Amino acid sequence: LAQAKQRNATAQGNSTFWQRTRARRKWAPFRLGPGGPPETAILWKNLMLAQRLPLKIALGVPMAILLGLFAMMATGLIAAWLVVMLQGITILLMMVGPLFSARGARNDFRSDLLRLEIMRTMPITGIRMFLAEISAPVIVAMLPMLFGALMFMGIDTLRELGLAGDGVSENSVRALTVAAEAKQRIAQYLHAHRLALVPLALAAYLPVGLVVALLTASIENVAALTFPGWVRLGTSKKQAASKFGQHMLVFIALSIVIFAGLLPGVLMVAVVVGVQTLVWGVPISAWELPVLGLVGALPIGAVVVALAVFGGHLWDRLDPSAEMLAGRN
User: Fold this and answer.
1) Which DSSP category does 114 fall into?
2) Which of 225, 227, 70 is nearest to 155 (CA)?
3) What does the alpha-carbon distance between residue 185 and residue 121 come to, in Å, rounded to a whole number?
4) How many helices and strands, by DSSP H and E, does the chain display?
5) 34-44 residue pLDDT tens
6) 310 C-beta neighbours (distance < 10 Å), count
7) Prediction pTM value
8) Mean pLDDT of the residues in the chain
């Protein structure tokens, strides 16, 4: 008992910075009322697994940071090379969020299967349960993507207006000139103004990013329901060395499945663009980009619906008395 108290005191002393205050322990993503649909309670619980920060703060603080950064860029308080680097980081945020954030959140069936006996008592059908479970990781994935999209559009607008990106070194002038010329050529080819090109491209990308996040979360949860002994369960990042190869194989296999799920959207966009340009002879316009984004998102959304139906069927057939889960591995 004395050794346990000593270890606990040492652990608390080493992690004082990360300890939550009593006020922060009362935080919640949103207020959960005494009544309402079960999906709301599942979403609240899963968001609590990721972060207790209220959603109002999670949305408001990044917006305030963006406004502050834009003001500093416009007044020249941020170096031009840092502006260029921030714009590159925003592209990574937009790409990594939908593809990997939902996979790494693990606040879904991959955690709730460890509490299968409790979760099976929820008065909810399988499809509704599946959609409620994947909603939290999708929200976690969409927040950095939206932040990156707003920052990228704001920086691009400031640079087009000549309020940011001035005074770069001679080594960066050539790269920026090439990028500006390429953007001008794309805008002329798509028959749009330079200022409208990025907003239209982002309007096309946002629905695609949403369905990609839904696809990744759906595939991860279907895999957890189908092969619970192969998928790592729980939110703990610790894993046995003997399981590393198994988890790597599962990650690679699921990545291949995810990219295969993206093919219907890619093929649909290719067919529409091919018919318009090759058969009808009508050139592509930048104002069509949001429509093409929806055209590419709809087939992927259909795949997500099929996965939700299949995952809900798996959940309805899951019997706690007959399942032998591998547990924490």
Assistant:
1) G
2) 70
3) 59
4) 12, 0
5) 888 889 989 99
6) 17
7) 0.84
8) 82
